[in-house]
Specification:
Glutathione S-transferase Yfyf (Class Pi), Chain A, domain 2, alpha+beta, single chain, about 5% strand, four-stranded mixed beta sheet, globular, 2 domains, 7 helices
Length: about 200
């Protein structure tokens, strides 16, 4: 398999982290998150959105969108529950991550740490406020449980861990989120864990 990857991308990291847990071998082709000028040439025939991660399976079929990829590979493993309700709860968190979490925390992180032409500070602060709303929801969910679904580590945790654990790179303060802090530590202790830099 070939993963079109950006090393600093949390979305790509979700895929790499699950693959590390599952012991799945794959190749990588690195693409920049800043200079996207070669994306039409590289990804144009594979992914109409021209985004990473894009994964080419061994049989030539293509999967895009991080949460679709991790959902596909988690099926039949310990990282996706068999119970239909718990599966739906995992999907609930995957949708939350892409709608309420990633557009705020990931975008602010990109603007603060990587962008050569970030938007005005007022726009960044408005997005940061949305990120804190997402962190507030995550803190409430984790206050009385170790993991997000069924009290065990699933792709719901992988999806939300990816950008939460680097939120400080977008100048988000996590000191006021003790349940999130404890959860981040639990995720980092999971068998097969690799850091985003790996």
């Amino acid at each position: 398999m070939l993963l079109y990857n950006s090393q600093v991308s949390g979305n790509c990291y979700k895929v790499r982290l699950l693959f590390a847990h599952l012991g799945i071998a794959y190749e990588r082709e690195e693409l920049s998150v800043v200079d996207r000028s070669n994306r039409p040439a590289v990804l144009g025939g594979l992914n109409p959105a021209l985004r990473v991660p894009t994964l080419v399976l061994d049989d030539g079929r293509v999967l895009a969108e991080s949460n679709a990829i991790i959902h596909y590979f988690a099926q039949g493993t310990e990282y996706l529950p068999e119970d239909r309700f718990e599966q739906a709860k995992v999907l609930q968190w995957l949708f939350f991550e892409q709608y309420d979490h990633e557009p705020y925390i990931a975008n602010v992180r990109f603007w603060v740490r990587f962008s050569t032409s970030p938007p005005p500070a007022q726009e960044i602060e408005a997005r940061r406020a949305g990120g804190y709303r997402a962190l507030d929801a995550l803190e409430r969910a984790l206050t009385e449980r170790d993991f997000l679904v069924g009290d065990r580590y699933t792709i719901a945790d992988i999806a939300l861990y990816a950008y939460t654990h680097v939120a400080n790179e977008g100048d988000f303060g996590l000191d006021g989120y003790p349940a999130i802090g404890a959860w981040l530590a639990r995720v980092a202790r999971q068998r097969g864990y690799v850091p985003i830099s790996a």
